[in-house]
Specification:
Keywords (chains A, B): NADP, Oxidoreductase
Radius of gyration of chain A: 19 Å
Strand content of chain A: 25-35%
Organism (chains A, B): Corynebacterium liangguodongii
Largest interface: A-B, 30 and 31 residues
Protein name (chains A, B): NAD(P)H-quinone oxidoreductase
CATH topology of the largest domain in chain A: Quinone Oxidoreductase, Chain A, domain 1
GO molecular function (chains A, B): NADPH binding; oxidoreductase activity, acting on NAD(P)H
Oligomer: homodimer
InterPro entries (chains A, B): ADH-like_N, ER, GroES-like_sf, NAD(P)-bd_dom_sf, Quinone_OxRdtase_PIG3
CATH class of the largest domain in chain A: Alpha Beta
Amino acid sequence: MKAITLANPDDPRSLSLVDAPAPAPADDEVVVEVAAAGVNRADLMQAKGMYPPPPGEPETMGLECAGTVVGTGEEVGCLLAGGGYAEVAAVPRGQLTPVPAGLSLVETASIVEVACTVWANLGMLAGVREGERVLVHGGAGGIGSFAIQLLAALGCEVATTAGSAEKLEYCRRLGADIAINYNEADFAEELEGSCDVILDVVGGPYLERNVRSLAIGGRLVTIAVQGGPKGTLNLGRMMPRRQSVHATTLRSRPREDKARIVASTVDAVWPLIESGAIKPTVSKTFPLAHAARAHDFLESGEHTGKVVLIP
Amino acid sequence: MKAITLANPDDPRSLSLVDAPAPAPADDEVVVEVAAAGVNRADLMQAKGMYPPPPGEPETMGLECAGTVVGTGEEVGCLLAGGGYAEVAAVPRGQLTPVPAGLSLVETASIVEVACTVWANLGMLAGVREGERVLVHGGAGGIGSFAIQLLAALGCEVATTAGSAEKLEYCRRLGADIAINYNEADFAEELEGSCDVILDVVGGPYLERNVRSLAIGGRLVTIAVQGGPKGTLNLGRMMPRRQSVHATTLRSRPREDKARIVASTVDAVWPLIESGAIKPTVSKTFPLAHAARAHDFLESGEHTGKVVLIP
């Protein structure tokens, strides 16, 4: 089979399509012929050598795909710890999802990782409830655009940040009630003490402003630290307001956790996709051989929504 | 009735016993003749003008007491938002507890606030489970000595910090498995990556070391910031380990929360007190008129366990 590899470990742009041995499935795995593979920011980090795969997982990039189970012909979505940038992937059974009714395999490949990440953090961890105000940073990205739609469907009041008028308009169309241009305004001044939940991808530089934005009982969930890992935390301010700060990644979780998350996500989120309340937001597709161009496109920050590779 | 007041708002030692109007109970309150009132660090802070009572609550200090319900003669423990340093207190019905079988009213007055604080944070919020390693800072204090006993009774492995050989020995007798002298060793070096839950009273200066000490899935709960409010948080370190930081106070909670906490605490903790698994740790009692001396004694840091005032 063909798969993407990093020809020169020191050059993140040296993504090359090469012949590779087909993955040998373990007892609890099936082999999936990949029809489409989602591109995530974590893949860009892995290409830069900053996000190695967990022990025992494939070295190949790619955290989600959709395709056909070899032998049965069943069409599935797949949450992966790696291995999506390839013609064939071995996938733990607990990490398979149905293809939502009405979605193509390309669209399915664009939502598995993001749906599981958003639901694990907003639904299972933060426990968002109808009527709560939720702030989503980076609302025009893959995670953000999915989170806005999910929260709007759940009856939350959705606030978001983005960096241009076009992106803000895009977020409003997805269902955001409040859209703040972070180049023009301080979100903490606008939202001071009002957010029940915040989904953050910036990390350290936003920490103090995120905590200032939290309401009594507010939960801050950080899933990426694009601005840097460390920030200042004011525990004295948080105490009388009973607030919490959570930080998680999905990829590092043990397989039994992932199976639990996939099952809960299919249960809670797939019906919202099938009803049209949440639409996949595929920005652009690239042939698998052009993975480097796909990474450049995602890195540029000009896109809205998700980027998908087609073997 | 007589009650303690701060004669000079600028002098925390000017605690004086004066005549005061008896409190008028609201519809959902009963009047309790106070037999004993626990002294807490929050009272010391209030005397210094740093911890005003929540709106609508008594100005008088005192967050817990035990006594007799006027009219029925029933003996009760009371969780208070204020008003315990007095001969009579008005108490919301939801904040009354039974007197645990075998305990005196003095002992009961020494455990209500601490039991509710420890259970709300370790049981209800952090969800400690049998077999988990839990670090309790300040193990020889009122909160710490109760938390060690509760955790040992629940089958946790208990680590603790204290500042002298005598206090460490006291903590071991209460059930601590690991006791670290913070003047001689860095607890984060000893416990690196091993603690499922940490109960913290130091705050900012301990934040980085507390997070270093957390295991995968670890929860840090800060209930006081005796060392200062602000610290550095490394979200990047926390993410792959799926950790969380919580900060809470009990006093600021709405009454319905307090009623829920009192009910859960009586349910989960009172049986452990009645079986003798958790013993009250009254260090010293003072007459109510000597509240200033009681505060000096608690402030000195020489005590182990709780300080109680007797009207």
